[in-house]
Amino acid sequence: MGKELFKPGNMLYPLPVVMVSCKRENEKANIVTIAWAGTVCSSPAMVSISVRPERYSYDIIKETGEFVINLVTEDLAYATDYCGVKSGRDVDKFKEMKLHECPGVNVKAPGIAESPVNIECKVKQVIPLGSHDMFLAEVVGVQVDDKYMDETGKFNLNSTGLVAYSHGEYFNLGEKIGKFGYSVKKRG
Ligand SMILES: Cc1cc2nc3c(=O)[nH]c(=O)nc-3n(C[C@H](O)[C@H](O)[C@H](O)COP(=O)(O)O)c2cc1C
What we know:
This protein has about 190 residues and is mainly beta.
């Protein structure tokens, strides 16, 4: 069995790819596609996004201290890619991609109405790392599309068609192959 030695680089895949929305008062809202995002704490619920300072969104997020993470579904994959190659300096991404703003409940930044989950975040720390600055943020609200709620009150997130990003390519999630704890569950 052989191994190739690669130079150090980012190879932690698959990842969620998300659309992060942000807005300064009296300006158009913007969307930036982010793959360097993660869950970092359960209680309080905290997340991180890493953003290059040269992004148009960077100053907006830094100044307002707010952003919304919008989960990406197959229907949003094309718009996600577009929002990751076009800058809000040049285009209105909501308008170009025919997306709609949904008002934040606990932040002034809008979410994306077409996304099934809008995670409202308030920045706690900005940590310069090198190419990217990491925004460590607390989750202050979560809005979900009621279309995916069933009669028992369960939110069927895995029916929304979520997308993963791996090594430069977008994928849907494929078949379910297990559930949390199934390796130790007694078979009935
Ligand atoms: C799949 C994908 C993932 C990306 N992930 C990041 C990221 O994690 N951090 C970042 O700063 N830029 C990332 N980008 C690049 C920005 O989304 C891109 O430069 C965008 O045009 C910036 O928009 P803005 O100038 O309107 O803020 C990613 C792009 C794509 C297509």
